[in-house]
Amino acid sequence: MERFNHLKIRELKSLKEKISTDINRIKTNQKETDASGIMEDNKQSDNLDVASVDLANSQIIRMRNRESFYVKKLAMALKKFDSQEYGLCEDCGDEIKFTRLNARPTAELCINCKEESEKIENVKYVKKSRSYSEAIDLQK
Ligand SMILES: [Zn+2]
User: Fold this and answer.
1) How far is the CA of 34 from the centre of ligand 1 (A)?
2) Is the pTM of this model over 0.85?
3) Among 25, 34, 54, 110, which residue carries the largest CB count within 10 Å?
């Protein structure tokens, strides 16, 4: 337990709860999307042109992909509680402050390393597509 020193048990508990709640929320949400279903071309083509059906479907799929990506990150964060690596920077091994984890429970880097990596991202960012910047937004 000594590696958890910088976080109080109460803080850990609330962070773990946050992550679990988020996973459940997204999974429930995805089930609901399943129930309403992705529009099928043959049923909708009378009223909607194929292009708008395709667009709606691709938006759902894109949202799905982002959610799946986020759920994976949440699940990874949850695992770190067991291995006692939660709250430690993946880059320098420094402690990530509770305020940062509270705002972003999936944080993998301490603020210093994050800022460093963002400087690099900003250079790439200009060249990357919109979907990439959306994925980044989701991580924040
Ligand atoms: Zn770091």
Assistant:
1) 39
2) no
3) 110
